[in-house]
Amino acid sequence: MSKKDINSYGAKEIQVLEGLEPVRKRPGMYIGSTDERGLWVMIKEIIDNSVDEAMAGRCHNVWITLHNDNYISVADDGFGIPWDIHPTVKKSALEVAMTVLHAGGKFGEGAYKVSGGLHGVGASAVNALSEYMRVESKRAGKTFYQEYNEGKPKFAVKELTKSDEPTLFHYHYDWNTKSGVRTVFKADSTIMSAVEAKFDFVSKQVKNRAYLVAGLFFHLYDERTQEEENYYFDSGIVALVKHTNKNKGTIHSPIYIHKAIDNIDVEVAIQYSEGFNPNVESYANVQATNDGGTHLTGFKTALTRAVNDYARKQGYLKEKDENLTGDDTLEGITAVVAIKMDSEQLQFESQTKNKLGNAEVTPIVSQVTKEGLDNFFEENPVETRKIMEKVIIASRARLAARAAKDAVLRKGAFEGGGLPGKLADCQEKDPTQSELYIVEGDSAGGSAKQGRDRKFQAILPLRGKILNTERARLDKVLEFEEIKNLVIALGTGIGDSIAYDKCRYHRIVLMTDADVDGAHITTLLLTFLFRYLPELLSLGYVYIAQPPLFKLARGKEIAYAYSDTERDLIVKQFKAVRQDNIIIQRYKGLGEMNPEQLWETTMNPENRVLKQVTIDDAVMADETFTMLMGDEVPPRKKFIQTNAKQAILDV
To answer: Does residue 637 have a pLDDT over 90?
Structure first.
């Protein structure tokens, strides 16, 4: 980037659209939520300004620090923000960029041709939602800065001197660059329910950014714990695909496709594994489009067409065979689809940028993907044969699964009739008021049926451990009677005919013994739900019951403890009133409780403890289930060795 280029990027490039007040009034519209996810969006908005600089070819490093007292800083070595006077607003361009919504270089004429922050809320929205913010901009050997409270400037933009060093926090990284921006903010606790950033979560998100911007260094440091991570990937999304597939038993080397058409840059990385579950991620200008969009549609269309064309041409499909479906070609695939285009043309369907809406992207992504796959298939016949064999087997399994699914349908699961004989259903027909307890064993099931409130609580006992669905296709899954009964009881259906709005219970409670076998059964159930009915987890319908570990009695006085610590506390309380002869009973299973005890401790809404199961990071969840429940032993062994000290053994 020449000196002429940096000089041409000045105050006139900052265009003003509207003010900041709406952000504080309706924060959810701008950052999605006010919890930990919203806090990450705030961090991401600042980081993405640096990423935009990198995509413009003028930034090589991003330094992120999680400070004490919930301060967070981000610095880069980009061009910096102009601080000269804006010609229209008659204020410093730095102040305009930080205090006016929809004001920024990405709205200018060519300053940022590719940007993730289409709507431009960026740093100004973060400023509005922060009780404190400080921005330093370094350009042409000088540094100017400004501080803010709740988005309002504390003073006019001024040149930084030694006496202006901050006192509320200390910078960790040396910022010895010729130019760049350094931003510090502290989220406003009167608006945000979460203001403390978790290192592990931020680290995973930063690593994901590093995969998507090949050649950009990310440096992350946690001042509170002295943890540090540094990320840099030359191979970009290929490295991301390899990482996602690290424990899955891949069947070929990654396929990488890259081409630009009509100023839309398309990158695709594909790799099949021996598993069954697809994992396709999509991005637009580095923003994760979790709900897909037009680029993902183009990719899936091209994948199905390319595989079918080659399968027909090479005789994998006979004339009488029906075409492979999209589900067949997606089985066991890990893929990343990333597009970059002029930020002014980019159209997202929401402020949080979860779904791409540009119609013109679909045919371009489809063309690039189809051409790339055609070339790979022709040039790599040995690896392509493995892919074709996999999708053909997937097709046969789909037909078998359809027959198994039809058998479930014939039982009338979707009309609420023909429910499993073991199910003790509730009287309530409103799903929002109904609960299903999935209980381990007939003994505990008997106690639960007697102790429940039959008005709104249904009981489904399971006999023994269910199938490990991580290693099975749908046709094999539905051969397992206990799983079939569960699907029928839930009423959602399964496979390509899932209807989550027909779920008969909006609270599904896994209730197993508090021992190793009980934990294993819970894990098997969660694996099934994650792989085959994932929306139940996303909707927040799934819970894990917490039965007590101990019953403590002294005379007629009875108490229950859910942990060793709580047990010891109750013992102290008993002894404080001189009650000796305390009887402590350690529950080994739910069947040891009579119906009244099970109701009072585990099922009564007024007393019970339920843990809601949610998926905050689907990629991490996928990795964890693959590692714990898959065929690869070494990663599971490493996990057990690493976490052995945290285990609580019942011996």
So the answer is: no
